[in-house]
Amino acid sequence: MLKERFVGLLIFAYFLFTSRFSSAHPLCRAHERSSLLDFKASFAINKSVSSDPSAYSKVASWAQGRTTSNCCLWDRVECDEDTGHVISLDMSSSFLYGNIDSNSSLFKLVHLQRLNLADNNFNYSQIPTAISHLPMLTYLNLSYSLFSGQIPSEISGLSHLSSLDLSRNYDFNSREGLLGLLELKRPDFSSLIRNLTNLEELSLSFVNISSTVPTSLANFSSLTSLILKGCGLKGKLPVELFQLPSLQILNVKSNNFFGELPQFNQTSALNVLNLASNSFSGEIPTSIGNLNSLTEFHAYDCGLSGEIPFSIGNLTHLKYLDLSINNFSGPIPSSIGNLTQLIELDLDSNHFSGPIPLSFSKLINLESLYLFKNELSGTVDFDMFLRLKNLTVLSLSNNNLSLIIKPSVDGPPPQYIFLGLSFCNLSSFPDFLTHQVRMENLRLQGNHIGGPIPAWLMNMSTETLLGISVAENSLTGELSRAICNFSSLSVLRLSGNKLVGELPLCLGNFSDSLAALDLRDNSFSGSIPTFAKGNQLRIIDLSHNQLQGKLPRSLANCKMLESLSVENNQLNDVFPYWLESLPELQILVLGSNKFHGVIKAPQTDLGFVKLRIIVISYNNFTGMLPSNFIQNLKAMKSSSVGDLRYMETTYTLRPSGGNEVTFLFGFTITITIKGVRRYYPEINDDLSFIDLSNNNFGGEIPEVLGDLNGLYALDLSNNNLTGGIPSALANLKRLESLDLSQNKLSGRIPPVLEQLSFLQYFNVSHNNLAGPIPPANHLMTFGSSSYEGNLGLCGIPLPNKCGNSEASGLVPLPSFDEEQEDHSGSPFQFGWKVVAMGYGCGFVVGVFIGHVVITRKSRWFAMTFCVKNLHVKRKPRSKRGN
Ligand SMILES: *[C@@H]1O[C@H](CO)[C@@H](O)[C@H](O)[C@H]1NC(C)=O
Ligand SMILES: *[C@@H]1O[C@H](CO)[C@@H](O)[C@H](O)[C@H]1NC(C)=O
Ligand SMILES: *[C@@H]1O[C@H](CO)[C@@H](O)[C@H](O)[C@H]1NC(C)=O
Ligand SMILES: *[C@@H]1O[C@H](CO)[C@@H](O)[C@H](O)[C@H]1NC(C)=O
Ligand SMILES: *[C@@H]1O[C@H](CO)[C@@H](O)[C@H](O)[C@H]1NC(C)=O
Ligand SMILES: *[C@@H]1O[C@H](CO)[C@@H](O)[C@H](O)[C@H]1NC(C)=O
Ligand SMILES: *[C@@H]1O[C@H](CO)[C@@H](O)[C@H](O)[C@H]1NC(C)=O
Ligand SMILES: *[C@@H]1O[C@H](CO)[C@@H](O)[C@H](O)[C@H]1NC(C)=O
Ligand SMILES: *[C@@H]1O[C@H](CO)[C@@H](O)[C@H](O)[C@H]1NC(C)=O
Ligand SMILES: *[C@@H]1O[C@H](CO)[C@@H](O)[C@H](O)[C@H]1NC(C)=O
């Protein structure tokens, strides 16, 4: 066997030599020439098929002519030196577009040994069974070419194959993520490879296999590369894979493997091991230290836990180590400092504790270091990072670290692209920021930085900066118009500071790509600036300031706007019905201002159709509750019960020449009930609620409210509403909170309300209701405070029994049960806790502006969307395997 390969190698070398240097080229066979021309003619040439920058049409130069008729000289065609038969055809990235079937003249080239059709568009053709006419094939590559259907058993007859690549035939137009088009069911994986024992490279990524890995792979002693990404594979990862003596690359990313990792064998030659995005359990075995040829180890989002074994320091060739998004705990082993070749180290989103090992200062080749979202603690002398001159991406955010930043003693600081130092106990802006000229993202949220924003900060990386957050610090003073120097900014977060004065006028038009503007919770005054046409704003949060005047009509220019919050200011305006022209608007929070007047019906049927959360409480709106307006709220009428997802929105931009960056925005809420505010960092995707409380609405509660069957909460309290409680409210099947208190409602509580089985909070106190409280179990479980102040109500839980005279108008005494209300164990509080955790129902006040995803780190995206590889678009192959 070995001998054979050696001889083969010699022949190959000879072939190379002769084909390069001999002047006597083999002459092409006429019938093969016409087969090649027929093959060429059977496709359209379509440049949009490939986005590989080096792609070009290899067949373009093929032609029949006196000087060109020797097809052995054609581009990417090779003939056998002696016989003149075509033995190799490389049509990769050739812009071929069209169907291919068994009639294709390609299959007349029966001497072919190497065939590469990768990166074309075969228009969902099946792999032709006539592939069996090419029995000499040693190399077959049909990847990334839009083949679909079951892989034919004929492939398993190609017993000379040493390299087989059927990967990445997926539909990149699908919004569902990447759906593999090829299937390996009949034959299955095991029978496909049974006779292919010469295989050295096998790639079946995104082939829908959905079985276990055949243990027969253990016999494939020549196998050097096995790539099985996204194949729906399940079961345990066979230990035999780690005993294959030649295996250098093993990639099983994005499958459904479970169970503990096997022991790693000392004889292993593995270079690249990718176990990411599976459902393993248990620890990384100490025997990982045996894999001392490893250069890449990817095990993010894998379900692993326990401590990282010290033996990982044995893997001194490692360049990439990614253990993020697992449940690892304990200290980060100091032995990682021995991995001096490391270029990227990702340990984020685990439970690592203790200090950052000082040995990290030995990682001089490091370019990216992610440690965010752990429980690391202690004081860190930042100088250890300033010495890592190649470090461009560093995130230490969201730990319990205290950074000491002194001027570096050791030359100029590194030029960062991404710097995350949120919640790092900083008390001032680090000096080294002055020298940054290509920063794209700076995060300093949740520190103790006081004083005004220094002028120099607003001259840092003005061209490149995409996102900056200095939220939740103690910044004071006015916001200088120099903030508008950041001409490419997408995200500006200054919330939770003590900034004062008027907003610079330029704020509404300084960056074409501004997507999120978060100035919440400062002391800004004056009016809201004008927003330019064509802006990209998705989130505007100006709440909890002292802004005055009207809402600028230019908000109607924010066509992408999803969330607008101006809660708790001193705005004095009528209802902004003109926002109905914003097709994406989901959240509108106007509470606690001086809005007033009657709410008009929307002008069109399409106004406010996506609105799901509306809070206009604590204003002075008057008139009837607007039935027409309510009728338009289509988003609140859906009651689809899907997976629990959190509401978020993304925004992707590609700065010229830079990496594609995707911002992920989440939405946060604060619930206020009876003066108790609670903050929740995430809200459910289909949460919808209406808060019209504390206004001066009059008239009756409109029946159409009963159509909004997606509603979780409805608060109409503290108005001047009259009439009865409509029975139609019983249609609000998801309702968890209903507050009608402090109105002038009369009549009985409709017994059908007992159908509201999710109701956790119910309040009709202080109205003119009468009659018995419906004896449904859960309506009775609400405390008497839910019913008090209605002179005519009776029955449990009120102290006054209805008796036989309840209809005769006997007036029971009102009850004031303050004690029960404050009781911490009351059903009311318990109820709301449950609601808040499960669904996050309440007043929306803020936004959080989430992670930034750099395309290279595709997994962040995958993780947050629960759809693997959603972001992958058709683009040139990256140098790295994932
Ligand atoms: C080129 O291919 C794309 C699909 O990749 C297709 O949408 C387009 O219509 C094709 N153009 C021509 C001229 O065939
Ligand atoms: C691709 O397939 C579709 C349907 O199968 C067919 O209508 C279309 O003509 C094909 N396109 C090419 C370029 O062969
Ligand atoms: C092959 O071509 C013949 C005639 O040209 C036709 O009858 C047959 O259906 C074709 N087969 C396939 C698989 O396209
Ligand atoms: C494998 O090879 C054996 C003998 O060479 C043959 O009988 C069998 O049909 C082949 N199996 C497949 C799946 O091609
Ligand atoms: C390591 O692999 C060899 C075969 O390559 C095998 O004989 C040996 O039992 C394996 N050792 C362990 C500990 O799995
Ligand atoms: C570390 O690697 C050496 C070989 O370089 C090996 O002998 C040793 O067993 C390994 N240690 C661990 C703990 O895996
Ligand atoms: C690896 O690092 C640890 C602690 O940093 C050290 O004790 C050990 O000697 C190092 N091992 C090698 C092989 O460098
Ligand atoms: C840093 O990066 C440069 C350029 O990419 C490279 O030449 C150098 O080897 C890297 N490592 C160190 C320690 O500078
Ligand atoms: C609310 O509006 C009414 C009538 O429009 C007015 O009389 C009243 O003073 C307003 N109340 C407040 C607090 O502005
Ligand atoms: C409440 O509504 C009644 C009519 O139903 C009206 O007479 C009264 O003035 C309203 N009260 C306020 C404060 O607007």
TrEMBL record:
**Membrane topology label:** Single-pass type I membrane protein
Q: Which InterPro entries match?
A: Leu-rich_rpt (IPR001611), Leu-rich_rpt_typical-subtyp (IPR003591), LRR_dom_sf (IPR032675), LRR_N_plant-typ (IPR013210), RLP23-like (IPR046956)
Under SMART domains, the record lists:
LRR_SD22 (SM00365), LRR_TYP (SM00369)
Q: Which domain of life is it from?
A: Eukaryota
Q: Which residues form a coiled coil?
A: none
Q: Name one Pfam family in it.
A: LRR_1
Predominant place of localization: membrane
According to its UniProt record, where is this protein located? Answer: Cell membrane
What cellular-component terms does GO give this entry?
Answer: plasma membrane
Q: Which residues form the Leucine-rich repeat-containing N-terminal plant-type domain?
A: 31-80
Q: Which UniProt keywords apply?
A: Cell membrane, Glycoprotein, Leucine-rich repeat, Membrane, Receptor, Repeat, Signal, Transmembrane, Transmembrane helix
Which residue windows are transmembrane per the record? 830-854
Q: What is this protein called?
A: Receptor-like protein 12
Question: Which organism encodes this protein?
Answer: Morus notabilis
